[in-house]
Design goal:
Elements (H helix, E strand, L loop, with lengths): L1 H19 L14 H4 L1
Length: 39
């Protein structure tokens, strides 16, 4: 049961990141810092 909770939590985080970070649409998002956070 625990795994299902972790998967749903991870899924929610991924969805939030996808919608709130335009750079998340590209693989570079995982390597380069976010433009807003970098300032």
């Amino acid at each position: 049961m625990r795994r299902k909770v972790w998967l749903s939590l991870l899924g929610a985080i991924l969805v939030l990141a996808y919608y709130f970070w335009p750079s998340s649409h590209y693989p570079a998002h995982f390597i380069e810092p976010h433009p807003v956070l970098a300032e």
